[in-house]
Amino acid sequence: MTIAVMTMEDVPEVAALERQCFSQPWSAQVLEAELRNPNSVFLAAKEAGRLAGYAGMHRVMDEGYLFNVAVDSGFRRRGIATALVEKLVEFAKEKRMGFLTLEVREGNATAIALYKKLGFGEVGRRKRFYVNPVEDAVLMTKFIQR
Fold this sequence. Notes:
By secondary structure, this protein is an alpha+beta fold.
């Protein structure tokens, strides 16, 4: 598996992965706009030339806001999400960021366990944040040692 910065050529596969993984997927147009955003960081994980997963975050000053960590169903349970998030943590350390934060569905026990394993802790909740189905968001943050 290789992890590299996502490119415009990756957008069709990432958009398809979004539709597979999320009830409110980002469109190809939104993904393209975010790739052009100088404050966005996107990584793509590939295996044998095929997109296995991707992750992205916004960088605001010395803060990082993770969004849309997704792994293709055919590649799950192989450490891909872990590797993607670890790469974003490395980036945060290199850029001397103070913390990374994210929202996750309260019912997504697998993702919550992954984030806890990587040093994220629950810092709050957003009631009824998600739709299809309606669900609270768990806010999780990892503070970066400077």
